[in-house]
Structure formats: C-alpha cells, structure tokens
Amino acid sequence: MRLTAFVSLLLTASPAMARPNILFLFGDDHRADAIGAAGNKFIRTPAIDRLYRAGYRFDRAYCMGSTQGAVCQPSRAMLMSGRTLYRVPMLLEGVPTLGKVLGEAGYTTFGTGKWHNGPESFLATFQNGRSVFLGGMSDHTKMPIQDIGPDHKLTEKRVGEKFSSELFADAMIDFLRTQDGGKPFFAYAAFTAPHDPRMPPQSYRDYYYKRRPPLPANFLPQHPFNLGGSLTGRDENLAGWPRTKEAISDQLAEYYGLITHLDEQLGRVLAALEKSGQAKNTIIVYSADHGLAVGSHGLLGKQNLYEHSMRAPLVIAGPGIPRGRSAALVYLLDLFPTLTDLAGVQNPDGVEGKSLRPLWEGKAKRVRESLFTTYEKTIRAVRDDRWKLIRYPQVDTTQLFDLTADPDERQSLAQDPKQRTRVEAMMSSLATWQAEVGDKQPLTVQDPKPAKIDLTGHARTPDAQQPKWIVDKYF
Asked: Which of 142, 223, 225, 281 is the most buried (most CB within 10 A)?
C-alpha cells in the first residue's frame, strides 16, 4: 500500500468510532534509533516509517529495567500488567493482564509470537492463539511453536516451517482475515526479531554486508569499568574482547538485516488489515521490549542502563490519533492504561502506568517529571529532560550525563566539582524513586568490587541456540 494512501486511511477514520480494534505489534531488542523515520538513513524500515509518519510517536519511551539478565521477561510482564518492576510477578500469576481485561469487556483477543511469561498467563490473556513461542529465544528457522486448541489448551509443540517473523505475520494475517467488525479485537504479535541469533535470511544479511551501517558513535573496544556483574553474561559473550570494528560491523549488518526483514512482515500485516476493511477503526501500536547495545560502550546486550538499551521505539496510530511526536518521559507499562483508555475500559486495581492520551490531545506536556531505570542489584539510574545519573553500587561508581549536549553518553561529568550539587540532587531523586516503586537495593555497599577490569582473552562459550555459521564466524 502506498504511503500517501495508508496515511490518508488512518487520518480519515472517524474519532467518534466506539470500541476501536487494537493491533499491537511488538519487536524484540529493537533499538529506538534503528528506524529510518527516527533519523537513521542507513536502515530500511518502510512499514514502521509509515506508522511514524501517520501516527503519534514517543521519542523517550523506556523499559523500566530488570531483576535478571533476560530483560525481555520483566519488560513484557510490566507491559501486560501496567505495573512497575518490583510489583509484578514474572509469570503474571493472579494478575489481570491487558488481554484478559479487554476480553472481559467484550473484545475478541488473539496472540501470536513470543510469550516469555508462562503458558498459564498466555491462556488467561488470550481467547485465541496461533504460532505461540513460549520462551526467550530460539533459532529463527527452527522456532518451537504451539496453538490454543478448541479445548482452550495449548497443542503439542511443533517446529515452525518458516522464518520466525514470517510465521508470526502469517498467523496475524490469518486472524485479520476472519474479522468482520462484529466485535472489536485485541490482536498482539510479539516477534522474536531482531533478537539474536543474528541470522537474517541470506539476502537481507548480504544487503547490509554490502551497505554497511557506520559503527555507533559511542563504540568502544571495551567498557571502561566493571558494571558490577553483567560484563560477561550471555549477551556480552557474543563477541570477544576487545571488540573489533570488524566484528561489530558484521553484527550490526546482521542486526539491521533482521530489522528490515521484520519490517517487511509488518508491512504484510498492515496490508492485510487494510484489506480486511477494519483499518479505519483500528488503533495500531508498534514498540519493542527494550533496545540493545550492539557495540555501543563496548557492550553487546541490554544488561545496562544506557539510553541505547533501555529506550524503545513507540508509535500509536489510528482513529483519533493525530500525527505528531512527544519528548515526554514514558514507560512501556503506560501502554496498558493508554489502550484501556482508548477502549473505554476501566483499569483493574494495581495498574501504575499513566495514560498517554493527554499528550497527543494537548492537555499535558508530560506525565512524569523524571524517570527511573534499574538492573539487578548492580545499576540504578534516573533522568529528567536533560540530565541523567547512573549509579553502580557494587563498584562504587557514578556517572552523570548531559543528554542535551552528549546524547550518546560519552563524557561523564560526575567528577566535575561544578556538578556536585546536581549529583547530590539526582542521588536524592534516585532514592525517592526507589522508595516509590519498592526497590530496596542500597546505593552504597560495604566492600565494593574493583571498578577496573580488562577482559582481553576472556574465555567465551557459544550459546546452544547459535547456528553453526555464527559459531564458526564469531567463536
């Protein structure tokens, strides 16, 4: 579908239409800056670009963080519950999820793709499901998937016969073909791309090998100090130390290839929505669980609190949603109350997120003054519109960044005497946030570990999910 026709279709939808459908498309490990319409001229993402140009985008959307290395699991738990990190169980036991709440309000609910929060909560969330992956990661060409059967139980696992992004897009397209407008639907597709293994189909890989994106502006061979425990985890083990420009260039090309292939599948889904006749009454969301380093700061994964890892893409398009963008500080968990607001459904007890609707309606410029992020027991951070403080209790290290002057977080000002008052104020803000969300981790510890570290020659072991060609190439 041509860009102008797609934009026109979304913008001519009547804002007075009741009970809109909701099509929620969700990526995995997708950096907010790895989108053409976000200013990245080295990547092809025409489908997401269309949404960015037709809808309302949020330039500062964040995952709150994680209590474990698999950041995707708590991110999705927060998303589906509207609750903050320390108040939501990872398997969503006893929690009224977004799909469950909408289903009880009369929506037809459907899920496909990755669900990392247990089979019981998936069955409680969705009435229908096809090509469901209950796990964290897998070889994209050998995805173990299940369906919700007629008895509302999960079928036996089978191995998908297509690349993961195609499997999940096919399932969503088949669902959309069955919708006639009789009931509103909530349809959720959680893709496993661009999460590693970074193994896009060969033509997508080759495209970026021949048109290599530049290395991140904050590329480093090694992170300058110990993060306190996450420098040698699974994600960081996908390349050696020091990081070479050649290895990071290859992985960026493969990462971009996964994103472009994913974008192509998103385009197929959007075309199917238009063909179904339901586009004029459908709210479309595209986001991802968090970002990824892929060479930034000498890191590869998301087990850190830099902007590249905690910030995620977020755009909402559809009836009543104007074109525009916001720099407000928002969480992914704000999507729960935002979507119930649009659906005219009351939130259950325990929802802590804030509806983003006042932002695009011009009734507010922000929903919070500052934003808190957290990782395991090792890292805490707080940021406002300009400044960001990161605290590493286990190694007694603090960073302060002026994000206006230094958006890539390359020059810490924490040791500048002129910033002493600011550091103290932001440490106080950090402690206030901890009390508010129930985080009990002290910001100082007895006997901190040494901050200095050099991982040159550190032994690595390839993850079992990595295909042979990746093992042969990087290990």
From this structure: 223
CA quadruple 268, 271, 272, 273: dihedral sign: positive
Strands (E), 290-369: 311-312, 314-317, 324-326, 330-331
CA distances from 333 to 1, 47, 80, 140, 222 (A): 31, 24, 7, 27, 32
Q: CA 260 to CA 262: how far, in whole Å?
A: 5
- Please choose, from the candidates 149, 154, 106, 150, the residue with its C-alpha nearest in 3D space to the C-alpha of residue 133: 154
Sign of the Cα pseudo-torsion (32, 34, 35, 37, in order): positive
Residue identified by tokens 């480093």 is 220
Locate tokens 């320390």: which residue? 86
Whether 398 contacts 423, CB under 8 Å = yes
DSSP-derived 3-state class of residue 287: strand
Whether this prediction's pTM lies above 0.85 is answered by yes
- Give the 3-state secondary structure of residue 309: helix
> What are the tens digits of pLDDT across the range 279-318?
999 999 999 999 999 999 999 999 999 999 999 999 999 9
Tokens of 409: 């977080």
- Cβ–Cβ under 8 Å, residues 241 and 263: no
